[in-house]
Fold this protein.
Amino acid sequence: MNILILGSGGREHALAWKIAASPLTDKLYCAPGNAGIAQDAECVVLDLADHAAAIKFAKSKSIDFVVVGPEAPLCAGIVDDLEAAGIKAFGPTKWAARLECSKGFTKDLCKANNIPTAAYRRFKGAGPAKEYVRAQGAPIVVKADGLAAGKGVVVAETIKEAEDAIDMMFGGVLGAPTWEIVIEDCLIGEEASFFALCDGETAIALASAQDHKRVGDGDKGPNTGGMGAYSPAPIMTAQMEKRVMDEIVLPTVRALAKTGAHYKGVLFAGLMITDKGPQLIEYNVRFGDPECQVLMLRLMSDLVPALIAARDGQLKNFDLRWYADAALTVVMAAKGYPGSYGKGSVIKGLDGAAQVEGTQIFHAGTVADGKRILANGGRVLNVCGCGKSVREAQTRAYQAVDRIKWPDGFCRRDIGWRAIAREKPVV
Ligand code: AMP
């Protein structure tokens, strides 16, 4: 098959690495890709917002299957447009992608189908929203309805903070003013991510992961797109995974099917494991980044038939095999991230780092300049390790990190701390 991946981050590098390893793959393209992806696929310049250009390219290269990485093109309906042009594509339609693009839509769907999630109200104006906050008290969570690149959620510790968040969201600080916000109760527990593959009618479990959103050690400092992740999440026992499938994922897929919005693709459930059981915080309609990187390292089976079965509605009797080992990824970011940062600094030592046993490096934001690899984004590299325990995976990942010579970059030194604290000490 000729396969085209859309996207340019560490998630897409992990997908390219796994898809390139499939015996079903003849030729792999990635648009726009990065310097690491170029080792597994031919990178092509395409604007992902220009669906007509993607269709033209796919037709010109006889592409059999397109795998869409990021949420923005999914929410803009790229799968609908590719399929309408006769090109098979993996990912939800625009209608089904509302699970990520509209928090209000997802909350209403959960309520109507008894899917456990925090109690909430939707608001179109600041006045009633503030009244509700004052009546409910703090802590309370304020969310903008649309896609906001991770900046649309404020967990307010005080009523004043919640009121400021309401003004900020309706006032247009997030780029465009929000038309609607959701205000919901604050859930208490431990967060985990869970991934499932859906074919429109049913779903199969992929795996769990936990990520580190804050920029600094000890989970301190501003939020980022994710500074590291590991899989599996120790809190997601087999029993908890079954509950999440039965109480959250499958009811969602079935409810959408009933409305005609058949959900095909990866469903990424952000969960809070509370003392009452798993509660849905939010859905994303694609693999997480950097969670995808650790999932791909743990997946033993060929990914390509699984993605095709999801697209074709054939997951009912499908099975995937996983390595029992843990995988962990450390994100190396440009100094200054998640604020402003420079581009173009030289990264050395990648070949030496790749030699550390049990490691894999995925590129997130790099560009090649002849033989040199230059930083080209905020999150730049995903240095991954695998091992019998999260601790071993972490040790290997940091051994590789320490071989990378990049003075303009930084990383957290404690990725996986929560899981490692739970593991039995090595004797
Ligand atoms: P979201 O973009 O919806 O995943 O929210 C971003 C982060 O805000 C989550 O990862 C949680 O840490 C936090 N959060 C969101 N909703 C809630 C909630 N209802 N209760 C507690 N924390 C929340």
Summary: The mean pLDDT is 95.
